[in-house]
Amino acid sequence: MSRQLGHVFKQPQLLQRALTHRSFAPDHNERLEFLGDSLLGCVIAKYLYIEFPDLSEGDLSRLRSNLVKESTLVIFAQQLKLGSQLRLGEGELKSGGCSRPSILADAVEALFGAVLMDDGFEAAERVVLNLFVPYLAKVDMTTLGKDAKTLLQEYLQGRRLSLPVYTVLETQGVAHDQLFQVECNISTLKISTRGAGTSRRNAEQQAALAAYQIIGKK
């Protein structure tokens, strides 16, 4: 984890706490998540301010809000293979908590907070940018603010291709805390992707994002 994150912890207990969900132990990651969330907003705001000197305050706010969000953090969690390293209670494990977007995103923010407490702002800023800068290089800034389903639909409509069909494959968990598994199928392109989320809409967005990324690589 330290190698992937680009930070060697002086206080390993902070890393352990960042990976601990509240369902596992009282010493969990929610306070670190609070720190990491604030840190992330500050670091990205500073980066955008420097990198895009001609953008207005409104445009900078739009970019930041569409970068600092759950779906982006889930991508980083997957890069870090975070799901397999989380410490979850038995109930969360059985209900698929290791792949739940909200849990993954919260853990990434907790990691940022842990680095901040371990070695200060500059170290934490470096870790954040090590993840975000390569991601930003692949992002079309003109599409930020549009969700994945909209982008996918616009792409297909622009080429007169059939629209995707979304199908719920599985629902896990109790009524107030469910995890949806959804498939996005684009028959004309022979593309089928899956997404998971705490609501059907979120799961569809994840599946659409995966399909849109596949199209971008063709």
Question: Could you name the key traits of this structure?
Answer:
globular, 57% helix, three-stranded antiparallel sheet, alpha+beta, 3 strands, 12% strand, 2 domains, 218 residues, Ribonuclease iii, N-terminal Endonuclease Domain, Chain A, Double Stranded RNA Binding Domain
Write the SSE topology:
Blueprint: H1 2-5, H2 12-18, H3 30-51, H4 57-67, H5 70-79, H6 90-94, H7 101-119, H8 121-137, H9 148-158, E1 165-174, E2 177-186, E3 191-197, H10 200-217
Antiparallel strand pairs: 1-2, 2-3
Helix pairs in contact: 2-7, 3-4, 3-7, 3-8, 5-7, 7-8, 9-10
CATH architecture descriptor name of the largest domain: Orthogonal Bundle
The run of helices and strands is: HHHHHHHHHEEEH
Could you say which structural class the secondary elements and strand pairing correspond to?
alpha+beta
Q: Stretches where pLDDT falls below 50 for ≥5 residues?
A: none
Distinct helical segment count: 10
Mean pLDDT: 91
Shape: globular
Q: Using the coordinates shown, work out and report the CATH topology of the largest domain.
A: Ribonuclease iii, N-terminal Endonuclease Domain, Chain A
Percent of residues in β-strands: 5-15%
End-to-end C-alpha gap = 32 Å
Main sheet characteristics? 3 strands, antiparallel
